[in-house]
Amino acid sequence: MSSMYPGGSSCEVYMTRSEIQSYRDLDAWKAAMELTVLTYEVTGRLPPEERYGLTAQMRRATVSIPSNVAEGQSCGADGRYIQHVRIALGSIGELSTELEIALRLGYTSQTDLGPAQQQLARTRQLLFGLLRSLRKNRLLKRTRSALLAAFVILSFAALG
What we know:
Layout: E1 2-4, E2 10-12, H1 27-44, H2 54-75, H3 79-104, H4 110-159
Antiparallel strand pairs: 1-2
Helix pairs in contact: 1-2, 1-4, 2-3, 3-4
């Protein structure tokens, strides 16, 4: 699905909840998967002596991002989903720091990191949007439940 936004740029239309069949339908998961591929490309160019250090840590962090989105979405729309998105955001922070460390140590260049850093920023933005949406839906659900409870109580009070 694509749509033209003001300014003429084409991008994916956000899916409604009913169209989301699995985590694979989420833009945040798709962006995190692309970030993982880019991170593996960057870490493949790091010095061999970092294989069990920085390379391994960066790979664990990047794999954690789409994995937590998938696990959270698979748990359902309760608080666990929100917690898994928060964990994914934590892994985004970790990966961002590790990319900066690789740059400061001279293991890579800003040019080599550019695509991964851009994808990281996009993934972070989508994860924050997902988190905002989940919180809003949770609040809406709680508000509806409270209103229904108040309606039932008032109905019984009016009858009695």
